């Protein structure tokens, strides 16, 4: 049966409010009504009755779901339809289609937000999204695009990692609609299917690349990994051959280097690589990545194609490659085999063919331990036990070449297992087809990530044109594409204050639940959080362009006197730094380079690197610290160091900067900001340098306003949306007294009189700057301006007046919202505010030590509270059914005007009614605005009526199960390729993954291997098919539980725990062993070698 436009959309003709449409399908008796942000299923009788009021507005091949977009406090809904598609090919009864045209129908009158939707539509129409359609009569989908053949053989239904429109299903699930009947899953990547005849048999050659949606984005916007261990451009590529009822499949993966790195700025030609976090700050994420890989794929073999030369354009690549190797060697996953192959160097020294020949000698010995999957019907003969993970910088061109080579190498084994190798021409035919398919596959993946086809080295003209196109696309056009990807994957959780708060407190798989649930979870946060105090040290220092860590004239004074020992020099030392060192150091510098024209255009980072190394050396005197992140804008630079034991509890680190020099054109003045989340609390550190000059107060105020307005972080986070904001820097506010009087008062240590005329204090008291921010009492002399290496204020010709230009302030969001009930530590308790006597600059450094309250989240308790909230708030569809208490024989409708008036009048006491439907003459469906209203109405049970007693029941009494299915849709449900499902461990506060016991490398084969090593074939005759392997038992997904009590949030792949009432203890007995086979299987035949 050919694919046709089976979907029809009807719009209400000349409708009054609310807006209403009906979705019909040619092969279904029922229809869907979308009205008042609700979805209901209509019977054929209801549809026929209502249809007279509607007219057709669209036809479609399929429906992808409902896109939810935030617009202030309201939510805009769009019905997403596939209106154009082209067939890619068929496998069995399943046909695969590429989406070429889509339509977004607003489920409201207004069309605001159209620009955002048009970008998402452009993304869906780009030719990289696919869906499958079963043409047979059975509902069992033989060929699911999100699943490889081996996982399908283990009973998996779909893989959420590659299910790109999963959030579009949520709206329909919420209203109890069976999405399998109405919606289709879309996968992003590449699919190619070719038909090849092997004698009288028909074979399907299939090459599928599945792009993960866990960390999706464009080339320069998304690099490296995130805190959950998901990497950019992670692609699972499956090379499969289907012959009759047999299949042979081989999987490879690619993905960005699993560290925190980026390529900032305009990228042309050679690309600089910046490690965006310190070495130790990447350890946890790297270990999570390989833990996930091992769980999902078995044994991992890393092929690293990055450059290794520290000279020339590949210096950044070599730094990244060395860091990757060191992390892997130092981690619990050092049993992962690494193949280091500098692709460019090898190809440059010879030809591609000889380089690949050299690579073959290295990788060939690992093929046997990885193996290939093969099956016939439900009988599994061989299984793949591991995967090769290939990476270069972009995971595009070099990776394409290596994966093509490996795929062609394994092709002959696949053909052998399918008994299709009796003629050499068959092998040649398959090789020719798959080589072209691999070229097309590389182009498609490259278009998704980089915007152009792959650079293959075949034509210098084509490669040059594509390279130029990439530069334009990646630097100028990718931001809008990145926004479209975020909207498609995140939808309603993208930009809102509520979303930002829930992302900090809650696991990722419940962030898409309804707004009332999320609000209630935030309100009840104290039930699953535990406050604890941490100590933060903030320092600021204008170093006047110098990089001297120790003054030549004062060799006994060092950075430790400022950062570690400053409280000791105070008259009263109330800070016990020895027993309780600071947990976080945020250290800001100004004029870290000379503010000349060349540095303003392209500032050197050499001074920043030198300061970073020296700071880490000094800080580690009392405790073990590591650089979390740093950011530089010309002369302004900010470093954040954290105690190493806190690194696993820190996530969502992001950077931003704002230029304010010359009206925002240059960075000689401006600010840098670093934000992070520690436990369940968000912090933001800002280091700024405002306009100079005694009388430029309004310019400084304008700098502050511009910085607070422009600083923005991913997911729409603004500066003051954070729980705590810490300001430090050279704000350049002066003292409104003449020079001589200022000097005299300073010499008399009359700090109170000077502070009365301090510009910052005055402007702050008027609410013009730093509103709701706190600063400690100033008990130290002005920090500006001194003669170098001297205790004398400026004696130069300009003779500038002393001033407190260097300051530290902070702001507590909780105190700003509710100052009455906020504790001192939740406000921020100042322990010390002073200056140090470092004399190598014309400024003195300032330091502030604070104690603040952060929230530790118990994610087990969080899920318990979540299901309590879901139970209390009622069904998400907010729908009740009204029927007579007793059966009525009359065929006429019982709901006359008087009865309807009575019903609606009584139900109005519970809440706003948004939709009323007559299911039949004796049944009424009523939808409220809120689920609690429906729950309250159903709990009463009856409606008082003078004529007919009526019973009220919930349409969805099992709404907790509906919410659980909604949560499962946003949970990683990947079934392991090899082995069984193991219990997940928490991402943070977790013990390291135990090292796999291996006597040597490569790993020795097990005593009774499932797949023996290849042996030379005794003759070219067709080998017998090995006996099938009994499928391994799979532990049910529901048996996986959340992490125990600690503060570690569950990984995104962990399913949500059930509510306490229905929880079942996990089985304590070990899983049953794989049943033994009768007799040893015949050896896997050797790959045929080409005849010379």
TrEMBL record:
Domain of life: Eukaryota
GO biological process: phosphatidylinositol dephosphorylation; synaptic vesicle endocytosis
Enzyme's top EC category: hydrolase
Cellular-component GO terms for this entry: presynapse
Keywords (A to Z) from UniProt: Hydrolase
Any Pfam family matching the protein: Exo_endo_phos2
Domain SAC: residue ranges: 120-451
Listed name of the protein: phosphoinositide 5-phosphatase
Species this protein is from: Leptosia nina
């Amino acid at each position: 049966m050919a694919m046709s436009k089976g979907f029809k959309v009807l719009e209400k003709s000349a409708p009054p409010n609310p807006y209403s449409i009906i979705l019909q399908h040619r092969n279904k008796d029922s229809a869907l009504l979308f009205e008042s942000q609700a979805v209901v299923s209509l019977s054929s009788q209801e549809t026929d009755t209502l249809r007279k009021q509607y007219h057709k507005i669209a036809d479609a091949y399929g429906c992808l779901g409902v896109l939810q977009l935030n617009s202030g406090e309201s939510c805009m809904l769009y019905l997403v339809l596939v209106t154009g598609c082209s067939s890619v090919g068929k496998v069995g009864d399943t046909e695969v289609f590429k989406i070429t045209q889509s339509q977004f129908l607003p489920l409201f009158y207004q069309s605001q937000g159209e620009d955002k939707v048009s970008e998402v539509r452009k993304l869906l129409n780009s030719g990289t999204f696919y869906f499958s359609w079963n043409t047979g009569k059975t509902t069992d989908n033989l060929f699911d695009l999100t699943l490889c053949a081996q996982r399908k053989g283990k009973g998996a239904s779909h893989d959420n990692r590659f299910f790109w429109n999963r959030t579009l299903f949520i709206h329909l699930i919420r209203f109890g609609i069976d999405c399998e009947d109405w919606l289709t899953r879309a996968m992003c990547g590449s699919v190619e299917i070719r038909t090849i005849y092997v004698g009288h048999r028909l074979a399907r050659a299939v090459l599928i690349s599945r792009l993960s949606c866990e960390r999706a984005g464009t080339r320069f916007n998304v690099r490296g990994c995130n805190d959950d261990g998901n990497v950019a451009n992670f692609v699972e590529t499956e090379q499969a051959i289907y012959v009759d009822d047999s299949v042979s499949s081989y999987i490879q993966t690619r993905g960005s280097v699993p560290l925190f790195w980026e390529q900032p700025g305009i990228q042309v030609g050679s690309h600089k690589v910046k490690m965006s976090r310190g070495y130790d700050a990447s350890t946890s994420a790297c270990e999570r990545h390989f833990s996930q890989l091992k769980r999902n794929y078995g044994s991992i073999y890393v092929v690293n194609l990055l450059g290794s030369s520290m000279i020339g354009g590949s210096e950044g690549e070599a730094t990244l490659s060395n860091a990757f190797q060191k992390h892997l060697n130092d981690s619990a996953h050092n049993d992962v085999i690494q193949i280091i192959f500098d692709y460019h160097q090898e190809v440059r020294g010879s030809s591609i063919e000889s380089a690949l020949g050299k690579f073959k000698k290295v990788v060939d010995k690992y093929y046997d331990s990885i193996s290939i999957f093969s099956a016939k019907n439900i009988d599994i003969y061989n299984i793949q036990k591991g995967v090769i993970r290939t990476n270069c910088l972009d995971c595009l061109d070099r990776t394409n070449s290596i994966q093509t080579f490996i795929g062609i190498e394994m092709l002959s084994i696949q053909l052998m297992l399918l008994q299709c190798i009796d003629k050499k021409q068959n092998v040649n035919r398959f090789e020719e087809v798959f080589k072209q398919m691999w070229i097309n596959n590389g182009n498609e993946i490259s278009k998704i990530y980089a915007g152009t086809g792959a650079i293959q080295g075949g034509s210098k003209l084509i490669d040059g044109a594509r390279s130029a196109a990439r530069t334009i696309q990646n630097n100028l056009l990718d931001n809008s594409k990145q926004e479209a990807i975020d909207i498609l994957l995140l939808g309603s959780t993208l930009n809102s204050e509520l979303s930002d708060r829930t992302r900090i407190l809650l696991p990722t798989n419940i962030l898409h639940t309804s707004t009332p649930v999320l609000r209630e979870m935030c309100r009840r946060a104290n039930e699953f959080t535990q406050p604890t105090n941490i100590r933060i040290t903030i320092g600021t220092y204008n170093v006047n362009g110098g990089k001297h860590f120790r003054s030549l004239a004062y060799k006994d004074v060092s950075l430790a006197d400022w950062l570690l020992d400053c409280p000791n020099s105070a008259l009263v030392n109330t800070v016990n730094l020895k027993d309780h060192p600071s947990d976080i150091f945020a250290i800001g510098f100004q004029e870290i380079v000379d503010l000349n024209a060349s540095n303003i255009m392209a500032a050197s980072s050499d001074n920043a690197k030198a300061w970073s190394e020296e700071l880490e050396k000094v800080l580690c005197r009392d405790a073990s610290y590591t650089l979390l992140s740093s950011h530089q804008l010309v002369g302004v630079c900010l470093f954040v160091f954290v105690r190493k034991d806190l690194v696993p509890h820190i996530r969502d680190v992001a950077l931003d900067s704002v230029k304010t020099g010359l009206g925002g054109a240059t960075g000689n003045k401006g600010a840098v900001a670093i934000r992070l989340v520690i436990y369940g609390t968000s912090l933001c550190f800002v280091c700024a340098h405002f306009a100079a000059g005694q009388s430029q107060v309004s310019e400084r105020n304008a700098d502050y306003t511009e910085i607070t307005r422009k600083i923005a972080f991913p997911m729409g986070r603004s500066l003051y949306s954070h729980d705590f904001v810490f300001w430090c820097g050279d704000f350049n506010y002066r003292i409104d007294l003449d020079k001589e009087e200022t000097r005299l008062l300073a010499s008399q240590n009359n700090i109170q009189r000077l502070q009365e005329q301090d510009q910052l204090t005055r402007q702050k008291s008027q609410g013009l700057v730093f509103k709701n921010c706190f600063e400690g009492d100033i008990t130290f002399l002005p920090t500006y301006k001194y003669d170098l290496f001297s205790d004398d204020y400026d004696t130069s010709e300009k003779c500038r007046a002393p001033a407190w230009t260097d300051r530290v302030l902070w702001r507590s969001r909780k105190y700003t919202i509710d100052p009455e009930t906020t504790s001192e530590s939740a406000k921020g308790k100042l322990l010390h505010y002073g200056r140090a006597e470092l004399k190598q600059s014309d400024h003195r450094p300032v330091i502030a030590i604070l104690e603040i309250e952060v929230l530790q989240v118990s994610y087990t308790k969080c899920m318990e509270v979540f299901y309590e909230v879901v139970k209390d708030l009622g069904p998400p569809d907010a729908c009740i059914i009204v029927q007579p208490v007793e059966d009525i024989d009359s065929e006429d409708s019982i709901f006359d005007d008087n009865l309807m008036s009575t019903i609606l009048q009584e139900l109005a006491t519970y809440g706003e009614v948004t939709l009323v439907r007559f299911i039949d003459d004796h049944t009424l469906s009523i939808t409220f605005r809120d689920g609690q209203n429906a729950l309250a109405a159903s709990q009463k049970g009856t409606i008082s009526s003078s004529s007919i007693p009526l019973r009220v029941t919930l349409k969805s009494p099992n709404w907790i199960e509906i919410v659980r299915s909604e949560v499962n849709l946003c949970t990683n449900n990947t079934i392991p390729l090899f082995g069984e499902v193991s219990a997940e461990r928490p991402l943070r506060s977790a013990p390291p993954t135990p090292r796999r016991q291996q006597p040597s490398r490569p790993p020795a084969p097990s005593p009774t291997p499932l797949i023996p090593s290849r042996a030379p074939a005794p003759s070219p005759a067709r080998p017998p098919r090995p006996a099938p392997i009994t499928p391994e038992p799979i532990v049910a997904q529901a048996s996986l539980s959340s992490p125990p009590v600690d503060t570690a949030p569950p990984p995104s792949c962990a399913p949500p725990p059930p509510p306490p009432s229905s929880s079942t203890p996990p089985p304590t007995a070990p899983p049953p062993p794989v049943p033994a086979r009768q007799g040893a299987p015949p050896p896997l035949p050797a790959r045929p070698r080409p005849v010379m």
